[in-house]
Amino acid sequence: MNLLHKALRIRPLSAEELVRIPSRLQRNVISTTPFTPNQVVIQGEKKQSFTFDHVFGPETTQKEIYDKTVMKLIDQFLEGNNVTVLTFGHTSSGKSYTMGTTEKSTHESKGIIPRSITTLLSCVNSTQYKTRKPFMKVSFVEIYNDESTDLLCEGGDRKLNTSLTGLQEIRVNSAEEVTGLLSLGQLNRRSNAQDLNRHDPDNSHVIVFSPKLNKQFDGEWVTVTSKFHFVDLAGNEMVRSFGLEHKLKEHFTSTNELTTKVAIGNAICALGDPSENSTFLPYKGSKLTRILQNYLCNNIQALIIACVSPIEYNIKETVNTLEYAKHARKIK
């Protein structure tokens, strides 16, 4: 069974970009064809093609993405399997919008997290699962400058170690309760303005749902606990040129932040290396990669969504994201 699915989302040009970016740099550099619907071609310094399990163009709705990529993971999760949905891409590429961690949204613009919450709680509260006496907990973590923070901790020290010991797990019974907790977490986020997105913090966030339910195996009733991880990675401008760290420092507020960005790229590249000799996985490169180790290895069902901008102005960041996704696509 293929445990890892990879998708690409190409966001539309925003109204702000139409005003801010010179028209000559608004040219669309990404194309698809009906003959190869899961492949994209980008025309930069050279013509390159990339293949995914799913490709979603600028016209794709939030519901379409959820229905085609996430719905199938809900059943896996409720059967007791751990699941991870991870988004990455450069700042302002649509990661948080796709995931649904932006503060304001309409019914149509709701992202993966709020849609998943509604589906999960509807299932858990259904007659089928009520007899199993289930309950669900939620946690919300931010990783910034290689430090992890519990965004739902009220008072006291909110810093966490790589094992996330002491992380608050709050029991929830409704989608409204979860939405309220995520809003609380948003208020506790760090601000980390970058060149591409000066008004919206772009740090890595991990949201965890953990249900417990009774399940019967060979006539015996046991309690099954599984985890659903939603990972919204910070912008990946940093890995524009793998290994050229001295050229990247201008993008970051500290050496630790730079180290974290490069470590993520190294871990993804190593995971996707088909070489039989590639047995070393550099998870220890940063706190974030040590945490992600548990979300991308072993028998976890995972979905990775790369988010990109289609215009020439962002072509360097877009090519970098696609190269990054190419390595991710090789992960088994």
Keywords for this structure?
332 residues; alpha/beta; Kinesin; hydrolase; cytoplasm; P-loop_NTPase
What helical percentage do the residues reach?
Answer: 25-40%
| SS elements, strand count | 14
Would you list the SSEs in sequence order as H and E? EHEEEEHEHHHEEEEHEEEHHEH
What is the rounded Rg? 20 Å
Give the helix/strand class: alpha/beta
Low-confidence stretches: 191-201, 238-259, 276-280
Sheet of most strands: 11 strands, mixed
The overall pLDDT, averaged over residues, is 77
Number of domains as seen in the coordinates: 1
CATH class: Alpha Beta
Shape annotation = globular
State the distance separating the first and last CA atoms.
Answer: 10 Å
Q: Could you tell me the strand content as a percent range? A: 25-35%
Question: CATH-wise, what's the superfamily?
Answer: Kinesin motor domain
CATH fold title: Kinesin
CATH architecture: 3-Layer(aba) Sandwich
Number of helices: 9
Characterize the structure shown.
The protein is globular. It contains nine helices and 14 strands. 39% of the residues are buried. Helices cover 30% and strands 26% of the residues.
In short:
The protein has 332 residues and is of the alpha/beta class. It has helices at 15-20, 62-78, 95-99, 112-124, 127-130, 175-187, 255-271, 287-296, 315-329, and strands spanning 4-10, 30-33, 36-43, 47-51, 54-56, 83-89, 135-144, 147-150, 159-160, 170-172, 204-217, 220-225, 228-232, 301-308.
